[in-house]
Amino acid sequence: MEEEEFEFAEDLEAILHLTPEVQLAIEQVFPSQDPLDRADFNAVEYINTLFPTEQSLANIDDVVNKIRLKIRRLDDNIRTVVRGQTNVGQDGRQALEEAQIAIQQLFGKIKDIKDKAEKSEQMVKEITRDIKQLDHAKRHLTTSITTLNHLHMLAGGVDSLEAMTRKRQYGEVANLLQGVVNVLEHFHKYMGIPQIRQLSERVKAAQNELGTQILADFEEAFPSQGSKVAWLDKIDRRYAWIKRQLVDYEEKYGRMFPEEWCMTERIAVEFCHITRVELAKVMRTRAKEIEVKLLLFAIQRTTNFEGLLAKRFTGCTLTDQKRPESPLDPTNPFLEDELGEDNSLKNCFPLFSQPKKPKVPDNPFHGIVSKCFEPHLYVYIESQDKNLGELIDRFVADFRAQGPPKVGTEEGGAVLPSCADLFVYYKKCMVQCSQLSTGEPMIALTTIFQKFLREYAWKILSGNLPKSSSNSGGLTISSLLKEKEGSEAAKFTVDELCLICSILSTAEYCLATTQQLEEKLKEKVDKVLVERINLTGEMDTFST
Hints:
single chain; 3 domains; VPS53 subunit of GARP complex; coiled coil; Vps53_N; Vps53
């Protein structure tokens, strides 16, 4: 029996020779630490392991019995497995048939579910379509109801608007008209409907009628008879009239218009435009009757009125119109208070270089009326020409009457007082003219200044130099600088030397002040006219 088993094992080993890949797979599936399960099992080594020494052979019977017991168990296991596989084929076929039947049933259920899903989807589409139709119907119905309400409001509002317009109920019309216009905006896309277009035309007609009617009422409420033909001596009445009208307007009609419309200012501005045009017409017609005092009076009253407008209004209505020429720079020294009665040289030197005053805001209404006086400022210029001529003649007469400065007095060797009087008068003229215009009248005034600066140099300075015995033709400054030899040197008395020093000091003062005068004139004249301001010739005269 043992020999047969040994032979069977050898045959089995020869038959079951597994490849390394299969052996590795088996080890991964059925891991084992038993040396018998190793692919490279060596029986000799295994026996040597069990019986390493001769003494260990004493237990050989126990070891053999254990191995035999293990072999029997393995045989039983193999026999059980082999027997169990006899019914596997039949069971597999039965399981396959059952699986096929289950798959067919599952397929049928899936098909039923798909059919039901398609039916549900179709039902949902139908329900959604119905909901959309109902939603559209609701929206259209709401729009129709709203439109009908607006139409009812529009029709009733137009009827009420026309009735209130006829009755001149402007307070009620103001709110109603805005509401009707707002409602009419909802019907812009329906203007193709004749009835809607007719209502829109009725609203426009009512608006036009209201505008015409209100303007007529205001023209009737504001009497204007005789307000355009008054002469310059009555110019105060013009401004007093508009003041009364504005006060009356604010009391009676101020609340009829929104505050942001600035209606009071608009009325005042329109009055200014009309006044400027009418004054210009009147002055062209009666130009020969214009006198300098009357002209200055009218200009003063007009600039005062423009200043009053600047205090009362902001000038916001002038932004979309041509703004009048901006006023002169408030830091101009000519805008300082006029000099008092004390016109001494001490108070006016340096005449044109006083500290500047803080700048004040521009007057947006400057020139809105007073611009009409500029074409007639030649009357003022001619008057200053005449006054300056008389002033120079008075300087000459006073010098001859009072005589030259004496030694030992305050005037001895000092600047002549007449030059201070001259430049003070120049300053006064520039203040007035610069307030009236910064254009051509300033150029004309500059020409007059040049004329009388030269006359002052000739008549007051050069004309009063003392004559020496050796120069009967009169003394010149250059002759004073030439020293003659010995006894031929020019001899002057102490009083004559004092006079010469005064004239030299006066010429030096006039030179410096004329230069400052030129700078101030250039500051005050329009930029396009700056190049026409040139006092170099007059400065050369004083320098010479």
